[in-house]
Write a structure and sequence with these properties.
about 700 residues; alpha+beta; Rossmann fold; Methylamine Dehydrogenase, Chain H; 3 domains; eight-stranded mixed beta sheet; seven-stranded antiparallel beta sheet
Amino acid sequence: MIKWYLKFLLIYSLISSLNLINAETLKNKIPVPKKVPVTFEAHGVERVDNYYWMRDDTRKDSEVISHLESENQYLENWFESGPDFRDKLFEEITDRIPKKEDSVPVRLKNYEYFRRYEPGNEHGIYIRRKNKNAKEFVLIDVNELAKGSEFYQLANWSISPNEDLMAYAEDTTGRREYTIKFKNLVTGETYKKVLSGSSGDMAWSSDGKYLFYVLRDKETLLPFKLFRHKIGSSQQEDVLVYEEKDPTFHLSVGNSRSMQFIEINISSTTSSEVRLIESESPKEAPFIFLKRELDHLYSVEHDPVSDRFLIETNWQANNFRLMTIDINNSADKNKWKELIPHRDNVLLQSTLAFPNHLVVMERENGLRNLKIITKKDGSEKYINFNDPSYNAYLAANPEYYSDKFYFGYSSLRTPDSLFSSKLSTGRKRLLKQAEVKGPFSKSDYKVERKFIEVRDGTSVPVSLVYKRTTFKKKNNPLFIYGYGSYGLSIDAGFSSTRLSLLDRGYIFAIAHIRGGQEMGRSWYEDGKIFNKLNTFYDFVDVTKGLLEEGYGQKGRVFAGGGSAGGLLMGAVVNMEPTLYKGIISNVPFVDVITTMSDPSIPLTTGEYSEWGNPENKDEFDYMMRYSPYDNIDNLDYPSILVTAGLWDSQVQYYEPAKYVAKLRDYTTSNNPILFKINMSAGHSGVSGRFESLKEVAMEYAFLLRIDK
């Protein structure tokens, strides 16, 4: 017995010493990049950036690449040094997803179109057929297109009006610079002549002989030139139709749902302008619907039966209203006729026209509503939803001449569902609900919606979900997600991957903070430029409020956000470093001052109206109050996982790379600060249906590892 005990002690001591060695070895392998001080001066303020050298616009510098690879290796070492849940979580997540799946067919003219996933494939196969009993025709197999590419994304595709030609836009770097290719659907030939450097937008002339597309600026990647391409000719022969010379605006193009017009949309975050070309006259110059005006946003929908346009406009209507006009009088706003007035408590978001009806998507009290309006008498029918918090949206509705429309619905416990609704009755029909493989019942999970009062007295909506059997007041880990920028609302939709956290006792919460548009246009305006601090204060105060009400255990609070939501993470962790045990910051926009001071960086000029222009002292001073990179200090930072994409066109890779290095310089804690950079991907991460889920599994494994 004594011999056995001594043997046990020996083994235990060996294991313990091995763990100590691993921990010490791991510490020694933390990347330590060189420091090359670069000083920036503006408005009497000097900022020193020791890691500015990490910026390499070519993405070929050997020293930079070596450092990034060392970060990936350190992340691997960290996971391998302790409990590594990545493989288990990946298997668990992918097992919930059907390996073979067809989307619901969408009819357009003589065919119905759908996407199919086959077992073992990462990408979809796009198919059309005359009807469900007819022979299927494969338009493109993305798996074949993606062969030999580390990254492949099919961004957009469109069928010509005569249905014999397909145009599709592909990206092989993640940089969102798309190449448009053409496939003859009669012969099966893919044309050798392509259109490179595009934004991915496209629109057809009615005879199918011309395709309109938008070219990106090679340096800034701003979409700024509209070209007309004759099918079969070379790109060098294309005709410039319009060039946007104001770098604060970006350009897009598409066909109207009626297919009678080519719509050219020119927009910034505060102003917009629409130009039109009749599809039957593709060589005509664009017609200006209404010249852009300061702080006037509008969009149009052609209603061919009435020979008029519907206009969603914020002219004398902060939350937008719906108006109508014929094209001959569109330039005079005083002749516009109001159909739906402005309402202080309802945000008008989208409108679809049909021969006898309108379908309107609105947002009231933070939640979306769908309603059908009968043109003849103005009567209204609402589509009802049951969950306390949910996501409802207009699905693909390409056909104007239809007696029904399609919409999607999900909630934090209800898988994504596609419905059709009869326009005449409002009666809805479930066409398909996403399948969740394995043991799953929505009744096992509880969804709640709360309002938390923050420091200035504003009530912020919060959506919550948790598993009923694991919930215990003040005893669960809490993961809270936020975004809060650009007027983008984060609706409470379903995620099958999230079940891996919920089933382990996590509470998941979405803080619908200011900077989004959940509570109307003023909600956005109260979270931008000189009101931006509201976004961060809201998130912190919501976190504290949830804890006070028992939703989560102190010391087991985690937070996450991506892109501008990564800025949110960077700001709140500087303000309240000990409030959170762990942070997941995906492709974070963290070096606000440096980026917004450089108009050569993609997206900079178009976002002055979101963040401000640092050339203006008052805007510079305000940005300095929250810019995450500039406010890093000697603080007890929590465990932080940061992700990036080398080819990211929205948040340049060097922002998160610099951010991680500086955090490690200043943190006074021993908590890990990890960095994962996808070397062959962009803003949206790796491509592929299942491959992309490895990153989700990594993030969840990070949470489980530090939640101890």
